[in-house]
Request: fold
Amino acid sequence: MKIDWAALGSVFGVSLVVTVALVGLFTMGVVGLARQEAAVARGGSAAPARIGAYACFALCAAAVAYGIFLIVA
Reply:
């Protein structure tokens, strides 16, 4: 049995980058929701923060759905 170390390193690198990006995107969504609550408490408009948070969560869901599609297909 021969291990292709270059391919293994490539898979590791891509999965590390995608994981960090996905966690960062989800974190930005949570921060957006927190800013929405702060804006409502101050009496301001919460629409931009809410839209940004929902966009981040939608992108996270799309990335997870694409990953599942790659596994199943």
Q: What stands out?
A: Helices lie at 5-42, 47-72. The mean pLDDT is 93. The chain is about 90% helix and 0% strand.
